[in-house]
From TrEMBL:
GO terms for molecular function: antioxidant activity; oxidoreductase activity. Residues 10-225 form the Thioredoxin domain. It holds the Pfam family AhpC-TSA. This is AhpC/TSA family protein. CDD domains: PRX_like2. It comes from the Bacteria. It comes from Rhizobium grahamii. Gene3D superfamilies: Glutaredoxin.
Length: 225
């Protein structure tokens, strides 16, 4: 299947492209078109499991999967981690109701228009380039952190707290997509975006965060109203 690429993040009203990926939590393939004409689906496109923020974003999305299913909405989590590596992780860190797919080449991220940000010394042209001076000036205030920290320090602290052990697959994913931006897209049963939350929006103010559960469920309620 030819690769689809959007030059901007998809927004409400856009038709989502079909993407076919290897399943993680079951055998075989998973495609966006599996849901089209059948059920609405919340699609979460994340960095690899090497990213501590994405591990938490994935868990937050999985926590809502049961409530969404009650509304007839499925959830699909896509991670920038090779299949076997991801299966090993979820074997030791199972999440109920998780339907996940592997996208080590970030095909789905490009198809949904999520850029891979280039880190520079001081040049920022959001969302394609960001200076390390900007990154280092950010402060993340999360309940799991002992104090507000810059993203690099927070990453190191959370990885240590999680006991996450990196392997060669993780290092390859970081080398290719460390700056990959993430997002969640709620698609109706016809495959059109009805709601979204991305790190691209508002000049990156949502980076490393998750949408409020109330916001997701409100969007889901409007979908089924």
């Amino acid at each position: 299947m030819p690769e689809t690429q959007s030059d901007r993040p998809l927004k409400p009203g856009d038709r989502a492209p079909n993407v076919v990926l290897d399943a993680i939590t079951r055998q075989g393939k998973i495609a966006i078109d599996d849901f089209r004409g059948q059920k609405p689906v919340l699609v979460g496109l994340f960095r690899g499991l090497h990213c501590p923020f994405c591990r938490r974003q994935i868990a937050a999305m999985a926590n809502l999967a049961g409530e969404l299913q009650q509304k007839g909405i499925e959830s699909l989590t896509v991670v920038n981690t090779p299949t076997e590596r991801a299966r090993l992780y979820f074997r030791y860190h199972p999440l109920p109701n998780l339907l996940a797919a592997s996208d080590p080449d970030r095909i789905s991220h490009r198809a949904f228009g999520l850029p891979n940000v280039e880190f520079t010394e001081s040049e920022t042209a959001w969302p394609y380039k960001v200076g390390l001076n900007v990154v280092n000036s950010m402060r993340l205030d999360m309940p799991e952190l002992p104090q507000p920290m810059d993203p690099m320090a927070a990453t190191e602290y959370l990885d240590k707290a999680d006991g996450y052990e990196f392997d060669d697959d993780d290092r390859r994913m970081i080398a290719k997509g460390e700056g990959q931006l993430v997002g969640e897209f709620l698609l109706d049963r016809d495959g059109f975006v009805r709601w979204c939350f991305t790190e691209v929006a508002d000049d990156g103010r949502h980076m490393f965060g998750v949408p409020a559960p109330q916001e997701v469920m409100s969007a889901a309620s409007h979908m089924t109203a």
